[in-house]
Specification:
By secondary structure, this protein is α+β, with helices and mostly antiparallel strands. 15% of the residues lie in helices and 39% in strands. The protein is built from 2 helices and 6 strands. InterPro entries: TIMP-like_OB-fold.
């Protein structure tokens, strides 16, 4: 847990409120897609979050390492800033994948994370 917290840019809890598919039209012969979830942030644990809703990018799942969030459920989301999406002009954005500790919200896990984040001065 500690290593995962230290190695992400932004860590927060939030409720998934919407989902959309992002397709890159710069590659007409390939299907390059990501999912963009809108998340209602319930608690910031690490990093710079200035609004109460944010967008988080991930893969579609099924082998591309994407996290399959469920609308209406709450999660603990470990994320990093990325600067390029399919070589387009999508500005700096947050992404997550199955190799992070991103998971459905569990109170016991949340309390451990929050204690550690406070000790490290992240929140």
């Amino acid at each position: 847990m500690k290593k995962a917290i230290n190695h992400v840019d932004v860590l927060f809890t939030g409720k998934i409120i919407s989902r959309e598919i992002y397709t890159d039209s710069n590659f007409p012969n390939m299907i390059l897609k990501k999912v963009i979830y809108t998340v209602l942030v319930t608690e910031k644990l690490k990093g710079d979050i200035k609004t109460d809703t944010i967008k988080i990018y991930t893969g579609l799942g099924n082998g591309d390492c994407g996290v399959e969030f469920e609308i209406g459920k709450s999660y603990i989301i470990y994320s990093n800033y990325e600067e390029e999406l399919f070589k387009t002009k999508v500005p700096k954005f947050l992404s997550t994948d199955i190799c992070t500790r991103t998971s459905e919200f569990k109170d016991i896990e949340f309390k451990k994370i929050k204690r550690y984040a406070r000790r490290k001065g992240y929140c």
